[in-house]
Structures are given as C-alpha cells and as structure tokens.
Amino acid sequence: MNSERTMIPPAKPIIGQDERDAVDRVLASGMVAQGPEVAAFEQEFSAALAGGREVVAVNSGTSGQHLGMLGLGLGAGGEVIVPSFTFAATANSVAVCGGTPVFVDVDPETFTVDPAAIEAAITERTVGIQPVHLYGHPAEMDRICAIAEAHGLWVFEDAAQAHGASWQGSPVGTFGDGAMYSLYPTKNMTSGEGGMVACGTAELARQVRLLRNQGMETQYANEVAGYNNRMTDIHAAIGRVQLGKLPAWTTTRQQNAAYFDAHLRGVVAPVVREAASHVYHQYTVRIEGASAAERDAFATALREEHQVGCGVYYPTPVHRLATFRVERDLPVTEMLAREVLSLPVHPSISAEDRERIVEAVNTVARAGA
Ligand SMILES: *Cc1c(COP(=O)(O)O)cnc(C)c1O
Predict the structure, then answer these.
(1) Which pLDDT band holds residue 322 (cuts at 50, 70, 90)?
(2) How many CA atoms within 13 Å lie on the side-chain side of 38?
(3) Which pTM was predicted?
(4) Ligand 1 binding pocket includes 160 (Cβ within 6 Å)
(5) What domains are there in the chain, each with its CATH number?
(6) 161 CB less than 6 Å from ligand 1?
(7) What is the per-residue pLDDT across 202-242, written as a single tens digit (0 to 9) for each?
(8) Is 150 helix (H, G, I), strand (E, B) or coil?
(9) Ligand 1 pocket: which of 58, 59, 62 to mutate (most atoms <8 Å of CB)?
(10) 176: which of 157, 191, 236, 305 fits an S-S bond (Cβ 3.0–4.6 Å)?
(11) Ligand 1 pocket residue status of 118, Cβ below 6 Å
(12) PANTHER family, per this entry (predicted)?
C-alpha cells in the first residue's frame, strides 16, 4: 500500500554547498587540526547560544560532559543525580569520571527531570546534578539551581538536544556551572561530530582546555594527565556555517510542531511550559496507556503503511541498561519508555510531508482506539 510514496525520514542532517565550501577552505589551507576555525567557532557559539559564557569545543558531546564534570572535580565516590529517561551518554559520562549516576524520575508532561525527585535523592555523597533538556524542552532550571545551591552541589546541563532553547528568558547552558551541547549529525545543528562546553567560570574553561589537550596550556609543559579530545578545524568550519543557519531551522521546527499541535488527534502532544522556549529536537507524542508492543506496532504502521519514519527515544530506561542495572522505582520513566514516539519535525519536511504525517498518525490512532 502506498509503496510509491517516499519515506519521510525521522531525522535528516542538512549539509549544503556552504558547508562544503567551508571544508574546502580549511583543506586548502593545509592546517586541518585544531586551530583558528575552532577558536572562531567557540567565540561565535558563545555569542549566539551561550549568553557570552566561555565555550570550549571538543570532539563530541560525550567528551564535553566527561571533561566538563572532571573539571568540576567529579571523581570516585561522587554521586551525580541524573534522569533515567535520557540517552545513555548522560550517565556514561558520570561513570567514566569514576562517579556514580543516581537515577531519578521525570515529569510526565515535559519529560524533563523532576526537581522534587532530585531533592529526595540527595545523600552526603552527592556532588552534582546533571539535568537534561530532553527533546529540546528546557528542564526546570530555576528550581534545580535553587536545590543545588541549598545543598552545595554543582549543576552540569546536558543541552545536547537544546541549542537555542530558553527557560524564563535565559538560554539553556547558562544556568549551571557548566553545560554541554552536542554537534552529532542528527542534533539541531552539526559539525559532523563535536561538542561544545559552556563554562560558568574561567577556571572551569581552563580545566576543560587542559584536559582536551594532554593537560597542556603551553606546548610540552603538561600540567595534568589529559586527553586528546580536540575538535578539528574541518569540523569547526562545518559548525560555523550551521550555527548561522540554526535560527531559521529552529523557527521551522517550531512551526512544524505548532502544526502538529493543532492537527494531531488520538495521541498526547508534548506539553510546553509557559517559561519554556522549546526547540523541538524531537516532537514526541505519547500513545497513552499503550504497552511497549502496542507503541511499537503504532510505529511499524506509520513506517510500513504510511512511509512516515519515526523513532523511539528511549525504549530502555538507562538505569535498566546492562551497564548500570540498578533497582530504582521510576514509574514515570517506565511509562514513557513504553508510550513515547517521536515524529519527524526537522526542517527538511515539507508542508505536504506535515499533512501526510498528521493524516498517518490520526489514521493509525483511530484504528487502534
Ligand atoms: C546526543 C546526546 C549526547 C551525546 O552527544 P554526542 O555528541 O553524541 O557524544 C548526550 N546526551 C544526550 C541527551 C544526547 O541526546
């Protein structure tokens, strides 16, 4: 049925001639490792998205989390409170610092970490909190920062999916002691692979710069045992072009989401808090009351009967992955892992695609009701 229609992909990086030209310029220069493009990208990213905070570019978002939290002093024995309903990197980055992720539940409407659950999980070993601006909806940063301050904890924001999102008028990435943005190809903007660390203090920025480059600020005067997590000028050149295109892409994502909000029936649309500006890395609906198998069947029907690509982020709560496997009672996380389904909202979908997506979802929802 309808096999002549092309599949609408769930995500699609947009790489144009401008990106190619930028890469070509770097290749022609003969200087391709970390250099002036990276420095310029850091400056431009800081001004555009991080409220002027000092930004350090690294080779992935995960590296950014790793170095950022090392820079904040995370080590063996330190507990960091994280949501379980997220991508595994949120918790992996805590673990590779030697710390222990302590998994808590999320808000069923915004899918972001529940501040009350954070407060309840604090122990004398807690050193920090890593909220996630999941799908591009900011976490409740005012409450989270107040809790952190009351308990002497640092906050490191996982803004991997939330470039340009804001909470109470301030951009994500500017609330915590530090923050990471991912530049993986499916994110709202890309550099191929890459990550940016926004730093709340000059000292954190210095630490991340040291750890990124073998512990050196001055060549061959290594101060600490560091890594090679540098970004290349090739990647930075792509990122700089994408940064310029991000505002228009974000607007298109928001327009696509508004269309879905107005026309989808039979699924629970994502909630946006009044204080939030949502950048829709994903447009994630809930198939209310569904089992995981029923949700998966919904997704299969969208793909196979309607050629609408879709994704499940994330089918297994991180605390139940083989890596961590801890006993926690996180009922909202479990419910969302069963019910969520993300529809294509990226800026490459056309007005006709949007209509097809709505028609497909409403048809599958009616059939299942
Ligand atoms: C993508 C992502 C990361 C990791 O970023 P990479 O650039 O892929 O290393 C971390 N957290 C979340 C929530 C993500 O979506």
Answers:
(1) very high
(2) 22
(3) 0.97
(4) yes
(5) 17-241 (3.40.640.10), 244-367 (3.90.1150.10)
(6) yes
(7) 999 999 999 999 999 888 889 999 999 999 999 999 999 99
(8) helix
(9) 62
(10) 157
(11) no
(12) DTDP-4-AMINO-4,6-DIDEOXYGALACTOSE TRANSAMINASE, TRANSAMINASE
